[in-house]
Amino acid sequence: MNRHYRRTMLFIVLALVLVLSACGSSTNTTSSSATQAPATDKPKEAEPSPNKEEKEKVVYIGIVNVPVTLNQINDQGDSAADNAIALINDSLLDLNEKFEFLPKIADSVETTDNQTFVVKLNPAAKWNDGQPFTTADVAFTLKTALNPKVETNFKLNFIEGLNDAGKLEEGTTEISGLKIVDDKTFEVRTKTPIDPLIFKERFGTKVFFLPEHILKDVAPEQLSTNPYFQKPEVTIGAFKIANFAQGQYVEVVKNTDYYRDVAKLDKIFIKVLPATNLVAQLQTGEIQMNSVPVGLIPITDYEKVKGFENVDLASGNPSVPPEIFFNSNKIADPKVRQAIAYALNRTLIVDQLLKGQGEVIDGGIPSYHPYFNKDIENYSYDPEKAKQLLEEANWDKKQPIEFLVPVGNKIREQAADILVQNLTAIGLNIQVQKFDFPTLIQKVQKGDYDITIFTRDFYIEPSSYFTLFKSTNPGNFLNYKNPLVDELITKGETEADPAKRKEIYNKLQETLHEDVPSLAVYSEKRLLAVSKDVLVGKPLDIGMFNNINEWDLK
Predict the structure, then answer these.
(1) For burial by CB atoms within 10 Å, which of 87, 405, 426, 505 has the most?
(2) DSSP letter string over 116-178?
(3) Mean pLDDT confidence for 63-70
(4) pTM (predicted TM-score)
């Protein structure tokens, strides 16, 4: 039941019983931008309400993908999980929609040589149980998450003392590139000089921390099954976990002991909904906004949502595209993968499903990304060329190709139907299996698929996209191997000169385009919807939660 409806019902009841009560009146609050207090200042508590019966301030966010976990060091590559994790965990730095890095747990990150990075923590930083956050927590998190015995997709292969897979070697417990200076200062040394952008994004914004005082006695091989990760109650963020009903919702409540300005909202709910329900609940006020990329509003509903009087609607940048990923152990010949690329009528998907509100690209990074290679010519729709390549590869057309499709995103499911029609038309034997996203990811990580389709996260740092294709990467679920690609990825990760990095990543994209270990299907313009009841807070392509403690309702 939305806030306006509750307020209206309250007034009706008062009128019926002819009772005037000060407790029943509503109070207006004014919005002001919260300013970050100096690190040594005591955090400001939320203003107490003069009205004891004033309703809680709760924001409901709609998503269509199911968060698979709340594990800070093993998000399993799930964007929905990242949304939930970001609500209850601060990183060292945050990123806003202008691509600017903001201080969070870290007051500063500095380097004089692009190889040694000095990080100073906010002196006031503390866990939500009141324990101080110190460099001991940083060291514990890194040594734990990078231990090869710990079940995690966490890796940092650019740091000195870690192997090419971004992990500690078996039997090693210390990271030579990590130096603890004092309780609030530490240094990280990289293997070679790197672009500071790599460090700030991949270490500063993507690392979430574990409380040493809670988990220090848990054996590494038992960590993933520890009850803490089912409901991580001790975290460091503006909100803390209240309930996690997998497949249904995530409920967080404000952390009244937050080291920065305490949140103005009391609660946030992330609701998992079918896309049609998401749009309907925006109209009824049951949710206040959608979330990207896991709560996309179908572009076909643009005019409908635009007509909602209670909602503001904006069109964002073209999205990170859903990609077709090939299991190279099953579809090893690049000619077969190229044939599939030529067989797909992706322009039809953009024109019909997206009503022209999108574009066709081949690579996994969106066209507005600064490292996007604009010189690459897309694979055209050419069924005859596709058939020719299959003949050259001696592909047995009777051989079944298992195509795993995640449910929940209506446009993506409809696009997959068109892809299947295209592939069947050139004689391929496509066997479609549909799964919820957590189940699909488990199968993909086990290599139990031939091709699949889903969307990855957005990154400013290009190496974060391309590390997937490195043969030594444990997260390379494609089983893809190409020595030149490995070489270019390593060069891109270790080159500090932005102009030279641009050349490296252009060459890398050209090589991947030829090999086709993955192929983008479409890049749609994102629809960002937010209720007019929301004073502060809205869906963004990036940096959606960087000011979560300032979010507020009318």
Answers:
(1) 505
(2) EEEEEE-TT-B-TTSPBP-HHHHHHHHHHHT-TTS------TTBTTS-TTSSPPTT----TTE
(3) 87
(4) 0.74
Beta strands at 451-455 and 400-406: parallel, antiparallel or unpaired? parallel
**Could you tell me which residues come within 8 angstroms of residue 494 by beta carbon, excluding any fewer than 6 positions away?**
158, 191, 192, 193, 194
Q: How far apart are CA 250 and CA 237, in angstroms?
A: 15
Does residue 278 share a domain with residue 217?
A: no
Distance of alpha carbon 278 from alpha carbon 298, whole angstroms: 10
Residue 427 three-state SS: coil
Token representation of residue 536: 């502060």
* Proportion of the chain above pLDDT 90, given as a percent: 70
pLDDT, position 36: 34
Residues sharing a CB contact under 8 Å with residue 160, sequence separation 6 or more, in sequence order: 175, 176, 177, 189, 190, 191
Element (H, E) at 400: strand 400-406
Do 392 and 474 have their domain in common? yes
∠ CA 222-227-229, rounded to 5°: 85
- The type of residue at 415 is A
Angle value at C-alpha 476, between 471 and 479, nearest 5 degrees: 70
**pLDDT surpassing 60 at residue 251:** yes
Output the pLDDT for position 541.
Answer: 77
What pLDDT digit, counting tens, does each position of 23-56 carry? Answer: 333 333 333 333 333 333 444 444 434 344 568 9
For residue 331, is it within any domain? yes
Instruction: Please state, in angstroms and as integers, the Cα–Cα distance from residue 136 to each residue in 133, 180, 209, 216, 228, following that order.
Output: 8, 8, 11, 11, 19
Range of the domain at 127: 90-228
Is the distance from CB of 282 to CB of 308 less than 8 angstroms? Answer: yes
Reduced to 3 states, what is the DSSP secondary structure of residue 334?
helix
Domain assignment present for residue 84? The answer is no
| Within-domain flag for 452 | yes
Are 285 and 333 found together in one domain?
Answer: no
Neighbours of 313 (CB within 10 A): 18
User: CA-CA distance, 204 to 423, in Å (whole number)?
Assistant: 42
Residue 76 lies in a domain: no
**What is the CATH classification number for the domain harbouring 95?**
3.90.76.10
What is the pLDDT confidence band of residue 222, given thresholds at 50, 70 and 90? very high
